[in-house]
Amino acid sequence: FVMTDWGATHSVGAAKRGLDMEQPSPVVFRPGTFDMPHLRDAARRVLAATFHVRLDEQPSCKLPCAANRSTNQRTAAHLELATRSAASGVVLLQNNGVLPLDPQRVKTIAILGAAASASDTMNTWGPGSPYSGGGSGHVPAPDVVSPKKGIMDRARKAG
Prior knowledge:
Order of helices and strands: EHEHHHH
Helix content: 25-40%
Number of strands: 2
């Protein structure tokens, strides 16, 4: 199902084009603003997802879910998987023969922009970072390798 980001819904048109749930409070899905067939379709998709993962039979936790929220998801195995996934997800849109850079020929490169040497913020509710945004979806990443550091480390290894 399709859910908005926090406060991102501004018109009934969004729901007529596939929006199923909005956060944090109703702008679209409130009495008198929406027709019943679209509302039923949206509810059907949300409930189908709930039943698909069996939350109706086995809720993930009982509020406030303190034990679940305090589990360690930063194990060595998780970090290795995240690193492999990130590296596998890099997409080069076009290469006209320049890449990979030849360390024997290229001695200087420019690394530009605010994210060039940025680290992540550990403030989960703050403005976020170039790596994972902000707000409730922010997952702090204390071990970020910035583009500048990654390139410098690789250049050092290449000599």
